[in-house]
Amino acid sequence: MLLSEAINGKRNNFDLIRLSAAVLVLFSHSYPLSARTTEPLQSFTGYDTFGTLAVEVFFLISGLLITKSWMDTPHAGDFIRKRFLRIFPAFAAVTLLSVFALGPVFTQIPLKEYFSSRLTWSYLGNPFMLPTRYSLPGVFESNPYPAAVNGSIWSLPLEILMYVAVH
Q1: Theoretical Cys-Cys bridge with 28: which of 38, 51, 102, 113, CB 3.0 to 4.6 Å?
Q2: Burial of 3 (0-12, 13-18, 19+ CB in 10 A)
Q3: Whole-prediction pTM
Q4: Domain extents for the chain?
């Protein structure tokens, strides 16, 4: 079977592979977030973690699927529209929920100060990724990774760069 045939099929196991990678990321992140000892793969290799391996798997699968998307619709406008609709609505919703639901519940500063902070309002620009903000005022500041409200968004600018590279 050719790779192009596997990507087009419904039996390619990409969902299972992505689920497995997501579980590896959760497992890997549980170590630093709970202040436990070094993650097992990192102890073994001295460098890579299961999370690093999982992210590389995500990037590989994304690269294949992004390329397939371009090959299925090799018109810039349609490709950009599809990619935009894949990311922007969910990212905008998560950003709004972070600022107006999660932030007010978890901030350690008075709500008046939270809502008057420039950082609160600049976080709303995240779906546009210029620049990406990771913190909200007073939110999660005592966590092992202080102030990271949604650390996983670091990969989105890279994904968009890949859209441009494929196009």
Answers
A1: 51
A2: exposed
A3: 0.80
A4: 1-72, 75-167
